[in-house]
């Protein structure tokens, strides 16, 4: 399937970065073309099962479609170039646009929305955009999204490349280069306070745009020069365990980490490696 040909999708800066979402054998994508915003595709046959009209005029971002249950309704949330929206994932009205908001947007969006509660989510983007808390209230079939707060990257929790993680009541991130004194550091924030970190890594532990992943109570962080760090996740803190240069002279190690059956897959711009993980 060629989204550019089929939906006239405009390829984002630095090419596509959206990760496909598979939900009950249905592939969910956001081509964000002039006519169609989001689609559901049968994984076995390739048949288009539903399409969401692009009435909000979003363009494709690097962000991925995220499944969330908001206001008790299963939804697909997408942060496109132009705003953020929620699309129904329920059988009776799959693909219906439920809500959208244009008050938070950036020309380049890589991280995906992070659900914090049954009616709220955390949004981040790079290039000076910073972070925002979005709340979606539902009354019957009426949906009202609102930006509760919005701030610059030097004023609170932010991320340029990677999607943040909510774990043990902490939001985990690597701060962007315009994040003030915390730039490039691994940080943890409480979901109730997006402006004051509860923990940050040492001065010499800075990771650029590198990815991170929680596995069995431990956080793996891949520095963008190919060095892999391991932390034990505690309550409101991280304990450094070890580090290892996995890719010598690594370049732009920005791709998300993947883990399955004890194997960790990571890469830089030129090399893919698979590591055996025993924790």
Query: Shape from CA axes?
Result: globular
The main pleated sheet reads as: 4 strands, antiparallel
Helix/sheet category: mainly beta
Give the % helix.
under 10%
Q: For the CA atoms, what is the radius of gyration?
A: 19 Å
Strands of the widest sheet, in order across it, are 1-2-3-4
| Mean of pLDDT | 95
The number of strands is 23
> Roughly what fraction of the amino acids lie in strands?
over 45%
What is the helix tally?
Answer: 1
| Weakly predicted, low-confidence segments | none
Q: Can you write the helix and strand succession as a string?
A: HEEEEEEEEEEEEEEEEEEEEEEE
For the record, give the distance between the C-alpha atoms at the N and C termini, rounded to a whole number.
39 Å
Task: Describe the overall structure.
- By secondary structure, the chain is mainly β.
- The chain is 2% helix and 47% strand.
- The chain has 1 helix and 23 strands.
- The protein has one helix spanning 3-7, and strands spanning 21-23, 26-29, 36-42, 48-53, 66-70, 73-80, 83-88, 97-101, 114-117, 120-125, 130-139, 142-151, 165-167, 170-174, 186-190, 193-200, 212-215, 218-222, 227-233, 238-245, 258-260, 263-267, 272-276.
- A 4-stranded antiparallel beta sheet has the order 1-2-3-4, with no helix packed on it. The chain has a 4-stranded antiparallel beta sheet with strand order 5-6-7-8, with no helix packed on it. It has a 4-stranded antiparallel beta sheet with strand order 9-10-11-12, with no helix packed on it.
- The chain starts with a helix and ends with a strand.
């Amino acid at each position: 399937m060629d989204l550019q040909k089929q939906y006239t999708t405009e390829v984002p800066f630095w090419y596509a970065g959206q990760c496909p979402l598979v939900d009950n054998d249905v592939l969910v994508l956001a081509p964000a073309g002039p006519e169609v915003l989001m689609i559901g595709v049968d994984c076995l046959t390739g048949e288009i099962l539903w399409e969401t009209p692009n009435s909000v005029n979003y363009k494709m971002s690097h962000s991925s479609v995220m499944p969330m249950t908001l206001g008790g309704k299963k939804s697909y949330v997408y942060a496109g170039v132009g705003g953020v929206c929620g699309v129904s994932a329920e059988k009776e009205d799959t693909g219906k646009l439920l809500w959208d908001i244009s008050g938070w947007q950036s020309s380049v969006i890589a991280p995906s929305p992070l659900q914090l509660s049954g009616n709220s989510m955390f949004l981040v983007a790079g290039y000076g955009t910073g972070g925002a808390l979005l709340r979606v209230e539902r009354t019957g079939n009426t949906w009202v999204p609102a930006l509760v707060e919005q701030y610059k990257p030097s004023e609170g929790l932010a991320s340029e490349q990677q999607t943040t993680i909510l774990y043990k009541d902490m939001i985990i991130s690597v701060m962007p280069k315009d994040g003030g004194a915390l730039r490039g550091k691994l940080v943890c924030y409480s979901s109730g306070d997006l402006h004051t970190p509860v923990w940050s890594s040492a001065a010499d532990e800075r990771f650029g745009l590198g990815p991170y992943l929680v596995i069995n109570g431990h956080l793996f962080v891949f520095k963008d020069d190919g060095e892999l760090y391991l932390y034990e996740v505690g309550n409101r803190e991280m304990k450094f365990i070890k580090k290892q240069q996995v890719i010598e002279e690594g370049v732009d190690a920005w791709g998300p980490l993947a883990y399955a059956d004890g194997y960790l897959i990571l890469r830089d711009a030129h090399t893919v490696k698979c590591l055996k993980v025993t924790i």
